[in-house]
Write a structure and sequence with these properties.
This protein is about 45% helix and about 20% strand. It has helices spanning about 20-30, 50-60, 75-85, 95-110, 130-140, 150-165, and strands spanning about 5-10, 35-40, 70-75, 90-95, 115-120. Helix 4 (about 95-110) links the parallel strand 4 (about 90-95) and strand 5 (about 115-120). The structure holds adenosine-5'-diphosphate. Adenosine-5'-diphosphate binds near residues 18 and 92.
């Protein structure tokens, strides 16, 4: 069967979606005809937001990008990609430490399935310092994360804080 090179998957934890992720999504959607943003559901225990909340945040933040859709997946990324007949994985790169991790993961994915290729997009310099884990750390310390995440993610973060405070 011929490979479909017009579709790509952008996988991640997205806990929560940041402006850096959104930039990668916008740029990947200009390159590929179809973009699937795939929320990893495996490690739900360790995430601030549930899989469904993460999917909802991304769906709302990307609603104007017509060729992007959001899904979630369990298990191995290469299995999920193959099942959907997708052979291109998008990942973002910020720092040298990202590179180290991403390099190992791309090679591992290739050794699991050599038909799947990882394509890297370099962060925009505006977003190179933004990560979900920093956002969570600052949020936990009551800092302002409004300039790092889309409005919908900020609403979810604020709701979570209100729920916690009302307990
Ligand atoms: P994971 O837990 O799979 O690493 P993340 O949600 O942290 O998932 O990130 C998904 C992808 O987006 C990763 O390739 C990561 O390097 C990339 N990414 C995260 N933040 C940024 C950013 N600010 N700019 C560019 N790429 C980013």
């Amino acid at each position: 069967m011929a490979k479909n090179n017009k579709i790509a998957i952008y996988p991640g934890s997205f806990d929560p979606l940041t402006n850096g992720h959104l930039d990668i999504i916008n740029r990947a959607a200009l390159i590929f005809e179809d973009l699937v943003i795939a929320v990893a559901a495996n490690s739900e225990k360790d995430t601030l937001f549930t899989k469904d909340e993460r999917v909802d945040i991304i769906s709302e933040a990307t609603s104007s990008i017509e060729n992007a859709r959001v899904e979630s997946f369990n298990g191995l990324l290469v299995d999920y990609a193959k099942k959907n007949n997708v052979f291109t994985i998008i990942r973002g790169l910020r720092t040298l430490s990202d590179f180290e991790y991403e390099f190992r993961m791309a090679i591992m994915n290739r050794s699991l399935d050599s038909s799947v290729e990882t394509v890297f997009l370099m962060t925009d310099e505006k977003y190179g310092h933004i990560s979900s884990s920093f956002v969570k750390e600052i949020y936990n310390l009551d800092g302002d994360v409004g300039s790092f995440v889309p409005n919908i993610a900020l609403s979810y973060l604020n709701n979570l804080k209100n729920e916690k405070n009302n307990k």
